[in-house]
Write a structure and sequence with these properties.
Blueprint: E1 8-12, H1 15-25, E2 29-34, E3 41-45, E4 50-56, E5 72-75, H2 79-92, E6 95-96, E7 102-103, E8 111-116, E9 122-127
Amino acid sequence: MTLRTGHVGLNVTDLGRSLAFYRDLLGFTLLTEGKEEGRRFALLGDGERLTLALWEQAGQPFDGDRSGLHHLALEVDSVERVREYEEALREYGAEFAYDGVVAHREGASSGGIFFHDPDGIRLEICAPSGAEDAPAPNGSAPTCGFF
């Protein structure tokens, strides 16, 4: 049996702010929410299956210098869909690591956008093809590894 990712859990500093970001901006469906003080959480998914859990347990923003989560990659069907998310995220004021869609590495057809959530957690929205003409910011090294 091969393991596969079931869901991802993220610690956040402000559940309301993060819920608005992941639900309203990125389109996750709220499956259930815990509102008890000191135990606030939100379980998000595709409407049926749990894919993302938000836990209001962090006292400070994400620190990319510590071991643990490097980034969370979310995949869509097309680069056009990636660009739709990019536009919405720019309107929101999200911080981007690169300007626009970039290739995953030199010569790759896959690529996407790299940005940060309200707590500074590194996120990627990518497509398996359509980024052939996009720049590769880190040459032959994986773009997602160095932002």
